[in-house]
Design brief:
By secondary structure, the protein is α/β, with parallel strands linked by helices. It contains 12 helices and 16 strands. Helices cover 28% and strands 22% of the residues. The protein binds zinc ion.
Length: 424
């Protein structure tokens, strides 16, 4: 039954949805009222009520929040053949993602007030609210405004990478107290392995472990809150545990590709497509990450959406697109790995929402990532038992493919509201 906006008990701008709400305290049969005028959640009520109903087994989550996206659009426009804010936004909504944080490794990276403001202006083209990281590179300094930062330890796209650990230390000394996310691959280890036979061997686990030690040292020395991106090695987790026991602020992201694929699945016909940095790891590493995500030791499921075209992948570009399949991947975590809806809520909504809280615009009300009166009216309904087989031609990302093409997910995104307005 669909009751139109403005039905009895609702204002003209309000919509109600009922079903199983995934709330921090547990799953509750209830309804949520969204107001498209304020863009916020107007009420959360127990029990089914008026409005659109999503029967069991559908689950009503807050919109998902992805802390690691490469939307590729910047003032240069040099990479919009593979993605731009409009197409990344469509891919995000298709995947149930209603807010993401965009990485700074652009041809013209946002590293100071002027370049950050210029990228913010371009980012207004995004159909959904996003947060921009500012880049840290050799010789950069903190911005006056409050932003999350990203530092690349190891070569990446654009001019942001450091050539040595000494250069990293010299620069980070200026970022005291800031929130810095790290790409953890030690450039010196990578340099020593340049001649190895495969991509995976050229970027070994030791590179991540060594960079982890450096990031932790920086957290301690400069009072940084650090986040280690797309974490991939089980052995490195031990360093993080030790740092946390010392009271250091170290957060972790895991990406779908490191949780779903491992080196035992590489074949001649998929090694190029499944090339990424850090690379795929062993089945043991994959298991360790899944367990760490389940336990909450890895706080954030972040996609590292890297929309290179298939032609670019053939030439050896690293990275894979994920936004379109974010929600379907969550149903795989529930079905194949036994994640509970509350574990999903934590890594895909609550924790990333808390991370972004200091940077959100006023339009996000009392925050994102929780179904609560006054928070942003972003909702994603997952149907965990409606199998979905992604096809390249159906992807909204401009790069036009997915590493999951032809594979079967147990469920899919059923409906999405953004700021109180139905989008999917
Ligand atoms: Zn990345």
């Amino acid at each position: 039954m669909k009751i139109p906006p403005g039905a009895p008990g609702l204002k003209m701008t309000e919509t109600a949805i009922s079903g199983l709400l995934v709330l921090p305290g547990g799953i509750t049969a209830g309804s949520v009222v969204l107001d498209s005028q304020s863009g916020l959640i107007a009420a959360v009520r127990p029990g089914a009520s008026e409005g659109e109903r999503f029967p069991d087994p559908c689950l009503i989550f807050p919109g998902f929040i992805d802390l690691h996206v490469h939307a590729r659009e910047d003032v240069s426009g040099a990479e919009t053949h593979k993605e731009c804010y409009a197409t990344a936004g469509r891919a995000a909504l298709a995947g149930g993602v209603t807010h993401y944080a965009d990485m700074p490794n652009n041809p013209v990276p946002p590293v100071d007030e002027a370049s950050y403001a210029a990228k913010l202006e371009i980012a207004r083209r995004s159909p959904l609210p996003i947060t921009l990281y500012a880049g840290i590179g050799p010789g950069t300094r903190p911005l006056k405004r409050r932003v999350p930062y990203k530092a690349y330890l190891g070569p990446s796209v654009g001019p942001l990478y450091f050539r040595s650990n000494a250069e990293v230390e010299e620069t980070l000394a200026h970022y005291r107290g800031e929130n810095v996310s790290f790409h953890c691959e030690d450039p010196e280890v990578l340099e020593n392995r340049r001649g190895a036979a495969s991509h995976e061997e050229r970027r070994p686990p030791e590179a991540e472990i060594s960079a982890t030690a450096l990031a932790i040292k920086m957290a301690e020395r400069h009072d940084l809150a650090v986040k280690l991106c797309h974490y991939s090695t089980g052995a490195g987790l031990e360093l993080v545990r030790r740092a946390r026991r010392q009271g250091l602020r170290v957060a972790l992201e895991a990406a779908p590709h490191h949780l779903f694929f491992d080196t035992s699945m590489l074949r001649p016909d998929n090694t190029r497509l499944l090339q990424m940095n850090p690379p795929l790891r062993s089945p043991r590493d994959r298991r360790a990450l899944i367990e760490a995500l389940r336990q909450g030791e890895v706080e954030h499921l972040a996609s590292d959406h890297a929309p290179h075209t298939l032609a670019e992948k053939e030439k050896g570009m690293s990275g894979v697109p994920h936004l379109d399949t974010y929600g379907a991947f969550l149903t795989w975590l529930m079905e194949a790995e036994g994640f509970t809806p509350l574990q999903i809520l934590r890594c895909a909504c609550e924790n990333p929402g808390r991370f972004l809280r200091p940077y959100l615009p006023a339009a996000c009300g009392q925050g994102i990532g929780r179904i609560e009166t006054g928070t942003r009216g972003d909702i994603c309904v997952l149907d965990p038992r409606a199998p979905f087989t992604p096809r390249n031609e159906d992807m909204q990302t401009r790069c036009g493919w997915t590493p999951f093409a032809g594979m079967r997910f147990p469920g899919r995104v059923k409906a999405v509201w953004l700021g109180g307005a139905r989008k999917v």
